Amino acid sequence: MDELIEILEEIQPDVDYKTCHNLIDGHYLDSLSILSLVAELEDAFDITIPTVEIIPANFNSAEDIWTMIVRLQEED
Fold it and tell me: Residue 76: pLDDT above 90?
């Protein structure tokens, strides 16, 4: 999870990722940020994030993102 927070802070540094639960809905992450984030996550965690997974429910908080990462790692 710490590595995820570091990646998020590189993309958008002015957010408290430990408490924020509206990264998409609150417009903290825009579409370009999400594309960058997906690429970083795929490299860092050796996963593939299918297009159908790129939905607000999977990216609204660091916890949501982490849950998706763990699930995708288990599916491999």
Answer: no
